[in-house]
Amino acid sequence: MRRHAASPWVALGAPILVLLGSIVSAEPAVTSDAGLCSKYGPRFECGDNIKDSRVCEARGCCWAPAYPVSRTRRVKLPPCFTTNGNKSTYKLVGNTTSGGSLSGVLRQTASTQPELGPDIAQLAASLHLYAPDIVQVKIIDPASSRWEVPASLFGKLPDPARTASKNGNLTFDVESDPFVLSVSRGNTELLHTDAHRFVYKDQYIELTTMVPMEASLYGLAEHTPSRGLRLRRDGLPITLWNRDIGASNADTNLYGSHPFVMVVLPDGTAHGLVLLNSNGMEVSLTVEGITWRAIGGVVDLRVLGGPTPAAVLEQLTRLVGRPHMPPYWSLGFHQCKWGYETIDEVEQVVANYTAAAIPLETMWTDIDYMDGWKDFTVDPVKFPLNRFQAWVEKLHGRGQRWVPIVDPGIKVEPGEAAYDDGIAKDVFLKDVTGQPYIGQVWPGATHYPDFTHPAAQQWWQHHLKEWHDQLPFDGLWIDMNEVANFCTGDVCKVPAEGMKEDSLGANADAFQDNPTICFLECQTAAEALAGKAPNNPRQLKVDDVPYPISNGNNRLALGQNTAAMSASHHDGALQYDTHNLYGVHESLVSYPAMAAITGARPFVLSRSTFLGSGQYAAHWTGDNAATWEDLRWSISAVLNSGLFGVPFAGADICGFMYNTTEELCNRWISAGAFYPFSRDHSGANTESQELYRWPSLAEAGRRALTMRYQLLPYIYSAFHEAHETGAPVARPVFWADARDSTARDADGQFLLGDSVLVSPVLTQGANSVRAYFPRGIWYSMWDPSHVDALAHGVHETLPAPLGHVPLHVHGGTVVAMQQAALTTTEVRNSPLTLVVALAPEEQDLSEGEAWRASARQNLRRFLRRILALAIPHSAPLGLTYRLSWLHEAVQRRVRPAGRSSASGWMFRDDADPLQVPNNRDNFLSFSAVLEPLPRGDSGGGDVAAAGAVTVHFGRGDRTVGNCGGMSWPLLDGLRVLGVHHKVDPASVAVDVGPASQLAPAALKVGISSSFPSSKGNTRSVPASQMEHSAETGVLVVRGLQAPLRCPHALRVSWASSAQSAAS
Q1: What secondary structure letter does DSSP report for 562?
Q2: Can you tell me the distance from the alpha carbon of 858 to that of 846, in angstroms, rounded to the nearest whole number?
Q3: Element containing residue 349 per DSSP (H, E)
Q4: CA 1000/CA 989 separation, integer angstroms
Q5: The pLDDT of residue 844 is above 60
């Protein structure tokens, strides 16, 4: 392959490519006598489907057959293409600097690939220090107005100066000729552009940023990643173009577009790159760097300085908007199916869940409930309004909810209120002739709302409200908003014979039987205009673009099965530019509409997303399939959504397409119960898969959902953190330790919040799972076992019979739990229990200690494997748990010689108020300490120690301030993990008083075994309410019934007696 001279980054990467050639590619070198060739550059086909290298090279073109990277990763590219590696450079002139900004003019000095369109010879460039930790690079055509992503999409953003990271120390530098830009954080270069290849044309932009080959990359969705969360640097294009295609199609562009990459370096530091551009795009990742190729818009590149993954997400959501805070009820379990054909069937499903004692919060209805699949209607026969109303009222009376589907397409049917009103208010997209654009979805011929129209908000809200007045739904499910279209064409019309006849006139009921087959008559823009000039000359240019991005991995037309690229909005903007924004615009309109209609915090679920969608909507990963592959892929898909600022995400549990199996559905609910959004959903013509369908499935569902519902206060708090900082709720394993290279590749597990590690079984027939644990100590949430990874991260083979999912809590954290119930309302009113997972504060081990810790870990892994082999697939869960911690008896227990501690917090409000409160008493902070005390010679037994768990109101800067009258449940119990000294039952006490008196920090080595008293507000806990095992290290205190009232703090303390210490 010929290569041009490049920056040191490329020079370093070139020999590495040769060394890795057998892995990255086995293809022959790219050659050409006419110019430079790049195997990974933009391919413009040379000739007509040439498949012979000699013919190709005789034409002076480049030859490099495309190659499949995996069974699912196949991209169709022309093997013979015009030279695509020649220089395209600009020179910076007339630049000025002011404060943290630089601006100047870029003049082209070398041009390339005229087949991609005319170059823009002069550009305006600006570099702006948006905040101490964010740099904006913007390059535009000063002579022509080009499409830019509207700032209004992102709502009211936080003040950059107020929210900037304290670690922000970004600087930028430029070289003038050729123009090269670099951005650094200290000595770490975050951005370095290619000096020889910057292309800026009318309908093509190419920009390359160098990235160290050892860096791990994440992002660039939406696609179903078959090879894990980490992006592969194989050079094949990753396409960003929203598309209605099943999520079971791995490694192709799906419903959303997120031009964002997170870069994690080997030392654990991270930064981000965001190209704020909504036009069709593909991104090529190689061992040298990242090449962005967009077919319109401008360069608006934001460099997010990090330096941690969490900081990158904070910076991203500071730019595009913080995720919304969901209503508490939406964190419960949801049930749906396309194919619930009557109100009787829907009602029976709810009754069956109750009879099976399986939690069910929300019942959903797909398009079955509609009259002729039209929005804002109900089928008068299958879902009669009076029956429907009575059922919804009954559902609400039991504390449950109902969410219906609504599609954007409005049927072309005079007399229908939404249609007539939309025509009157002129709120539909227009075709090239100026008439409302006609597409086809479920109800037949439809118009698509222009959700950017000033009247769209009032129109949409009005018809939602009229419908809500009849049937008070609790949330809104907006589907098909890529936008989907069963036809393809610039101008379409209903045939004279009507929609009920196909083009052959052979079947009068053809449309009803096959609604996804196009029955419209469609034309191109040129055919429809018949020589007339369009309102916007660009409308004739957008269908035949110079560079075809790899839509569907096959260079499909941009307008295939969606609204035409020439369709226009009220302000003249074209779908060519705004297509990827359709879903987020619908979410933006639906969220405030639901807030106004319900008077409560809205819940909106959207299939199509873009940057900023998390402000307004949750997301599900789309139409997956009931396969083991789809189960495995769902983990990375859900994690990806969180990395784009859309943390409220989940996949269809048990699979949407095809019939599921008992084992697959068991495993899927065990994993999916811990998705941020947890819903069982299946497609039409599939067998029902509700959780009560098999006894073993019912047991698995009860078990997993019981734990989810117990964790609701913790999960709700994680959503508050997402709302405040942008942190994902479901997090990649590397979030625990980004320096850990194994964690950066672990994508069959995930963290729920910052404390709980979920390790599901994803393989058919398995009765164990090989899980990875980053550095630390990890306690099982099911039994007294723990995983000792204090020395370094470890793999463990964990028993996992059918119906069980390993869950572990990270040492050093406190997790708030409540009592399980069938609805979230019941859970919310139940007493609290705190799970306190202690961890040594000093984890740096000496060489000898590290060797011994490593030996213990190896022994544990051996025992785990033996136990896994000994446990049959259908072993009773109790037997599994007893065996799973037998190794505790033959290895040294974790007994930190020094102080151990843990901390955590919890957020609580009135469940779904419109405004998220931030009073002091909306937060509880938890802190725990276990402190060795000098007692003299302990006779070789346990070290005498005192411990305490303190609960106080407030968090961070909210530790002081007024109390807002928030009502809190009683604190009923503690489960403290890591207490290996023998607790004196008589020492357990509860104190209530000022936080300053009760803080664990008040404990000093050398004081008596009891903590400072809170002046009389102390009571002892009866020994009958306490259980403790020094062997397992588990201390349980129950029946506390302690009230939590702001501003008072509460402390539970214990100690080992001198007698027990010497025993």
Answers
A1: B
A2: 18
A3: helix 343-355
A4: 14
A5: no
